[in-house]
Amino acid sequence: MSSSTIARAGTYVPAGIALLALLNLGPAIWIAVAPHSFFHQIGPFGTYNGHFLGDAAAFEGGIGLALAAAVRWPALRAGALAAALGATALHALNHWIDVNHAHAGSNAGATDAISLTLLALFTAVLLAAQLRAVEAAR
């Protein structure tokens, strides 16, 4: 890998990680502040359960904080991206399984499943770039 490729990865990987951090922290904060709003707007699957929504906020927030830390400390980047990829890919899979099970009239469904799949692919691209940059630097 050329030094210019490593330099480009050094620029866009942290920016991508910062974006992923915001995309994880946003829903976590929304759930913590207004769980009923989140449930009705984003997560209308089954019956409302505040505890499980709190758990979801904790996991989303934890991933978001790890990603935010990885922007500052490069040694954390591959691990934070791998964890985010695993969580996002499983989240996307769950939405594909439940694609037709949201409450009638909600905007949840195929759009959510597609969006999460694209987010997982974006995360995978960032992880691959980070791993290539680390290998090239050795």
Characterise this structure:
By secondary structure, this protein is mainly α. The chain has one domain (3-137). 80% of the residues lie in helices and 0% in strands. Helix 1 (3-33) crosses helix 2. The longest helix has 31 residues, at 3-33. The chain is elongated, with a radius of gyration of 17 Å. The termini are close together. The mean pLDDT is 89.
Q: Describe the main β-sheet briefly.
A: none
Distance between the termini: 11 Å
SS-derived structural category: mainly alpha
Count of discrete alpha- or pi-helical segments spanning 4 or more residues: 5
Q: Averaged pLDDT, please?
A: 89
User: How many beta-strand elements?
Assistant: 0
What value does the Rg take, in angstroms? 17 Å
Overall shape: it is elongated
Number of domains: 1
Spans of at least 5 consecutive residues with low confidence: none
Q: Strand share of the residues?
A: under 5%
Helix content: over 70%
- Helix and strand succession? HHHHH
Concise overview:
The protein is mainly α and 138 residues long.
Question: What descriptive keywords fit this protein?
Answer:
138 residues; mainly alpha; 5 helices
